[in-house]
Amino acid sequence: TTEHRFAAVDLGASSGRVIVGEVAPERLALHEAHRFPNQPTRVLGTLHWDILSLYQGVLNGLKAAAVHTGDTLTSIGIDTWAVDYGLLAADGTLLANPVHYRDTRTTGAAEKVAAALPPPALYAATGIQHLPFNTIYQLIAAQGTPALTAAHRLLLIPDLISYWLTGQPGTELTNASTTQLIDPRTRDWATPVAKALGIDLSLFPPLRHPGDPAGTLRQDVLTETGLTRPLPVTAVGSHDTASAVVGVPATTPDFAYIATGTWSLAGLELDAPVLTEESRAANFTNELGVDGTVRYLRNIMGLWMLQECVRAWDTETARAGNASTTDLTALLQAAAQATPLRSVVDAGDPAFLAPHHMPDRIADACRRTGQPVPRTPAETTRCVLDSLALAHRRAIEDATRLSGRAVSAVHIVGGGVHNTLLCQLTADACGLPVIAGPAEAAALGNVLVQARTAGVITGGLPELRALLHSTQPLRQYEPTGDHSAWDRAAARLGDAQVTEAAN
Ligand code: LFR
Asked: Between vectors from CA 475 to CA 339 and to CA 332, what angle results, nearest 5°?
């Protein structure tokens, strides 16, 4: 047959999955072979990823994929969240559990970095927005620790999984750009930045690019998974957002995208970075994408805010001796009926980054800005979704202004596609049509790059996206309502909204 099957390993902040993509020249379908929870664990006060449990989920997923396909997989690709890493000893042993980017160990690291390299110079050299957890801040915070001192090698999370599967170390470029140690013009290491900060670049194995070979499965992996052939692992956009943007089913170049999930990543795809001082002040990032592209976007807190509210409400209910948990469908229906734009918060504010007490932090932000404090879960949910829609609009407006590009439609991909209220509010806020889908954009982008490498499909991003457009279910939302209400809500937040970190 002309159909090929690829396994996409896609690890997100709340769950991991192994998805089989079935690809033929005019056909593209997904089958979820395995989904498993990602449960971060606090140890001695530090928040860690439970990396071995995630790796076991990957092995179980590959086993399920082998069964589902009758052991006919062509290759495997891996994408995960960005910035985090594992440290290895010379013999390959993992020296410590990777620390979660939401851990507070980076508090104060930005000041240390700024003392060595002023923010304007750092931005001009890397084009990366300031997020307190960028790898450079983590490395500065870890300086002098036993693990970093002993480390022979540093592997970003997808590269670590890939190393365990194949024994071949490498550093995939799209994810490497989120370390803040890559120059987006040369798409190579920013050696002067590393020098200024005392970061040893020899910790990183050589760069690989999406489409490059990344080794073949080790014998022990074949034994664990029941796969019988030493399958190749192919480098894909190993940053989940890079793969998700490949998975945007755009048919014209003038689109904006919002990759939704734990985060909302909202912006534009460009062919060259924007490194102006204005862009830095607006805290826009230039992450590297597949096929020489640049993802010009801003991080917005995303559905994390709602997930954390639900966790808090469920904890309260459990404390009261009640076993019931939040019914998300009912909650979203109630939120849809709640007063629109009653109060909005700055969904870009790093104050919402850490876990715990989310409803309280949202209430505080409303109080601080002189707005009514949401009283019920439905009101809080409406506040979160209105705030996300407002932040989406602001990111897209800023991106168009700063890049000089025009936008005629907004694509929403990722888990937020299932949240029809968020999609409609985003269309209303932006005053633009929203095309929602696919939800599994990262897995699709991962599969498409593998399929192209295997020669099953050909072409650039426009051709890959045309295949998505013709095969994936999409839903369009037209803007409704009184657009000026969004302007007034934005004005209420006013200058408080300028991301503090950038200044
Ligand atoms: C989304 C994402 C974002 C990155 C954040 C932290 O899953 O990869 O792009 O900023 O997680 O790594």
From this structure: 30
The C-alpha torsion from 291 through 294 and 298 to 299, rounded to 10°, is: 40
Q: Is the peptide bond before 438 cis (omega within 30 degrees of 0)?
A: yes
Closest ligand 1 atom number to CA of residue 13: 7
Determine which one of 10, 103, 240, 398 is catalytic: 240
Q: What is the DSSP string of 458-502?
A: -S-HHHHHHHHHHHS--EEE---S-HHHHHHHHHHHGGGGS-GGG
Instruction: Give dist(CA 195, CA 405) in Å, integer.
Output: 35
Distance 240 CA to ligand 1 centre (A): 7
Query: Nearest C-alpha to atom 4 of ligand 1 is from which residue?
Result: 82
* Cα distances (Å, whole numbers) of residue 367 to 174, 257, 306, 338, 345: 40, 32, 19, 19, 10
pLDDT at residue 501, as a whole number: 39
Cα 417 off chain centre by: 15
What DSSP letter does each residue of 269-329 carry, written as one string?
EESS----HHHHHTT-EEEE-GGG-EEEEEEE-TTHHHHHHHHHHHHHHHHTT------HH
Burial of 323 (0-12, 13-18, 19+ CB in 10 A): exposed
94 DSSP assignment? B
CA-nearest residue, atom 6 of ligand 1: 82
Query: Tens digit of pLDDT for each residue in 313-348?
Result: 999 999 999 999 999 999 999 999 999 999 999 999
The residues, any chain, with a CB within 8 Å of residue 131's CB and separated by 6 or more, are 83, 299, 350, 501
Contact 273, 127 (CB under 8 A): yes
Provide the residue type at 498 as one letter.
V
**Ligand 1 atom nearest to CA at 133:** 6
Predicted ipTM beyond 0.95: yes
Integer-rounded Cα radius of gyration of the chain: 22
Enumerate residue ranges in the chain where pLDDT < 50: 498-503
Per residue in 380-434, pLDDT (tens digit) is: 999 999 999 999 999 999 999 999 999 999 999 999 999 999 999 999 999 999 9
pLDDT of residue 1: 61
